Amino acid sequence: MLVAAHVVEVLLLGLGPFLFARAFARRWERPLGIFGVGLICFVFAEVARIVIARGLGALFESGALPMPSDETTLVWVSASLAGVVAALTDQGFRVMALRRWVEPCDGRTGALLGLGHGGGEAMLSAVLVIVMAG
Prior knowledge:
With about 130 residues, the chain is mostly helical. The chain has one domain (about 1-134). It has helices at about 1-30, 35-60, 70-100, 105-134. It starts with a helix and ends with a helix. The mean pLDDT is about 90.
């Protein structure tokens, strides 16, 4: 039963985003490449987030940034920094893509770009399930 659940999970996470994107691209008369641009935005945002997190970690370890002493404060500072960095990287790359590479710039195009961004995350989750199961 567990194997069947993993198969269904991999199929939904791996193929679902692409199939939705293909259907929406046809219906909205947009190129499927917008989905691909969203995938690329996701990858670049993740790489940028890793670099920023490592840089902030080095600054905290070296003492250049003060480490919160209270455990509750540390949790709040960590969560706040993670949220701000995620928002800046994700939205920053999407805005750059919408302004430079994707036309027309409207709600449907933005939704297809976002589907690529979130779909990339889902597809990588499917790969992770395959790696962990196998």
